[in-house]
Amino acid sequence: RDRPPPASNERGAGCPRARAPRQQPLPGVPCLRAASRGAFEPHRARLAPALQRRVEPVVEEVRRTRRGSDALRAGRPAEFGRMMTAAHASLRDLYQVSTAELDTLVEASAAVEGCYGARLTGAGFGGCIVAILHPAAAADYQRQVTDRYRQATGREAEIHWFDPSGGPEEI
User: Fold this and answer.
1) Rounded to an integer, what distance in angstroms lies between the CA atom of residue 168 and that of residue 149?
2) 85: phi then psi, degrees, rounded to nearest 5
3) pTM of this prediction?
4) Pairwise CA distance, residues 135 & 117, whole Å
5) How many CB atoms sit inside 10 A of residue 130's CB?
6) Angle of the 100-110 helix axis to the 77-93 helix axis, nearest 10
7) Is 12 in contact with 32 (CB distance < 8 Å)?
8) Is residue 53 classed exposed, middle or buried when 0-12, 13-18 and 19+ CB atoms within 10 A define those classes?
9) 129 and 100 in contact (C-beta within 8 Å)?
10) What is the model's pLDDT at position 123?
């Protein structure tokens, strides 16, 4: 990157400007999560390029989340994984909150047979990724991702395993 990206808070602060009443670039949209691609596209050109890059990931993430949820309910983990990886690309290219290290982890994950998808998690600018994979791919994933990360960065990656649960419940 030519210069460090602005802080994550600055990105979040740009989104309300996209629907500010004085500007009215997205008329009738109370918040960006309510904006469809169809509502966004006709008004895209009214937004500054940097603001376009902040709004589009929000609009698209709502669509991806719905498609991903449908895929999980239908037992299609590969489709869910594609939504995860597309979310990472959006966060990397448009919202600009990824890092070379996170990108390396996601790319290394995608290269493993049985890894359905991966994306950064948290606020970006470093941290970790989450990947979804078939249980039979765990050993290959551990070896391949840590090897590729070490080769690319000279540092060791830590992998923490977990199984999804049924969600929160009273104990």
Assistant:
1) 33
2) -65, -35
3) 0.78
4) 13
5) 16
6) 160
7) no
8) middle
9) no
10) 76
